Amino acid sequence: MDELTAVLRAREFVNKVAPSVFPVSVKxxxxxxxxxxxxDADMAPYEQGYCVEVRGKFRICVNEKDDETRxxxxxxxxxxxxxxxxxxxxxxxxxxxxxxxxxxxxxCDVFAAELLLPYKLFKPMVEKAAIGLSSxxxxxxxxxxxxxxxxxxFATLVRAPCAFVLAEQGKVRYAAxxxxxxxxxxxxxxxxxLPNASAASRLRADMACSCPEELDADVWFENWSRGGILxxxxxxxxxxxxxxxxxxxEDEEMPSETTDPRQREEEENGLAELDGILPWPGKKRRK
Length: 287
Fold this sequence. Notes:
Layout: H1 3-17, H2 26-32, E1 35-40, E2 49-54, E3 57-63, H3 68-84, H4 103-116, H5 119-128, H6 133-143, H7 147-157, E4 162-168, E5 171-177, H8 179-183, H9 199-204, E6 213-216, E7 229-237, E8 242-249, H10 261-269
Parallel strand pairs: 1-3
Antiparallel strand pairs: 2-3, 4-5, 4-8, 6-7, 7-8
């Protein structure tokens, strides 16, 4: 199963329940699959939750040690396992860690984010919000969703060219991109080290950084030929050695596609001053 399939299945599920306000009711989602929600006081701190069948009825159990936001996400994640038919593979893996997270678990996370931040309700809020992590964190609080889930959904739904990156132990583990960036093939390689010139890398190294910062787009995007200046807003979570970065173009528009350095410079800085030197015919002669 791929991410697009998980997203479409999640949106079908949301349409059945039809939530109308934030925060959405996770109890209504659970009821749609015939499940009740229970709080388990005996789970280890690193455990998220599980779903069991008791006397023909499903129980979604969440960890009492987690906060309400985490429990809400866990409920939607466990619903994803049932709806998508994907086996649980998070035994022994901390709920906050992405380093060893399996593809199935990531797909269930994507499904859960769609449930907590439904497209029809969240998209209008995204379009009205300023681009930046502080703005996204405010949205997360109002929607009853985690900051990571909200940032990922924001980057996916915003009209401007934008990306959200999550790194753990200095390596990129997950990246969400807007439609504009996906269409432009702005690729952020997974499992790669954080770029040395990025604000995210410097924050992780405990170096001073005033975000958002400007940097060349090819610092983050692999094999990028369009040029352009990115703004990078980053945070480092030292407790888990996780680093997040939100990337978007300075003018919120995609640079035009060109591979000619001279043409790109003229487009970004205007025509060069006339110096009396013609750029042609060069070494080749017309026949």
